[in-house]
Task: structure prediction
Amino acid sequence: MSASEFSYSQDQLRQLATDVLQHARTLGASACETDVSEAHGQSVSVRKGAVDTIEYNRDKGIGVTVYLGQQRGHASTSDFSPTAVQATVAAALSIARFTAPDPCAGLPEETLLARKHMDLDLYHPWSLSVEEAIHMAQRCEQAAFDVSPQITNSEGASVATQQAQFISANSLGFMDGYPTSRHHLSCAVIAGTGENMQRDYWYSANRQARRLAAAEAIGDYAARRALSRLGARRLKTCAVPVLFEAPLAVGLIGNLVQAVSGGALYRKSSFLLDSLGQQIFPAHVQISERPHLKGAQASSPFDSDGVATHDREVVEDGVLQGYFLSTYAARKLGMQTTGNAGGSHNLIVQPGELDFAGLLRQMDTGLLVTELLGQGVNYVTGDYSRGAAGYWVEKGQIIHPVEEITIAGNLRDMFKGMVAIGNDVMVRGSKQVGSILIDRMTVAGS
Result:
């Protein structure tokens, strides 16, 4: 079977969704929503030239949520037979009958639902044979070994391709869906021997295989990153500027999203409670949400509730303009959904004028962070403490690699201390941002 072939057509998925809604109505549900999906793909990895793993996946599922007034029940199945579909709806209704009423439960307001189908160019299947995938992974890894004899070992190179399609529908008349694709190529290698060994990696991800970085380029860069970390030292504890490399700067934007998402807000477990309209970044920080970018990693015409997505400004001149709310979270907060059930859609942080070298010069003396370890973020207080590795910088030049340190601060202070954002934007996922320079953090070392 070729990569582009699904087991079901979109029309068949629509019929399954229609059957779910009709059966729920027959059994007495006051409202119903359903998602019908299938996915398939393959992943191949090699290590030291030999095939390490070959994995295939083929999945399908139906999720059913029913309402009896404000009582909610959910059930799912991977069996698409009529008997299984009916049993799943019945199971969801049974659960709803034993669930306490929730005044915030229910479908979105009908006027907010997406009604116009949009083709956002999200589906580009890759007819890649296993043999081709193995050869590509081998070329990627070999390119790393070819950089230097100091590349002594490998954690492997991998090539993955995934295709999926779905239909979402509810009893208010919403029904839409589309196919998507995601492709990935990565390499991780080890430099040095004995006690002087360092690991690093690199990868490329895109909806279109032709837009992935060349296999040899990924392997080459992974090797050079690993080599550059040889001879890493610890630092004495200090308080200095910290530059987050672009792939890690994405995580800082993710911290913002988590802190101003509905669940954290209505549970009062965020350090940014009641922050709407407040200055939480410097005035140069602008963050936009663009759900309808053609071919982008997080584009979608509607969210997981079926609510239409829209362009919006999340942060303007450093001021927070909007939260990330699902229908349920919005009701809990007495607000309106922002179309973010299921997450954010293409968050774009406006880049500054400086490239990476320019950011190093502006930092002058401080720490460049290229790897973070652990999950030390307390969203209630904003306290941030992560294990880290990277490079010590003096007079705008990298002096030596650094390891076994911890960087610490508070996210509220870190956000306000974003003195510069680079134009070295790397597009890999749902957030697009260049490297971020923080004015001051504590670096704990020896």
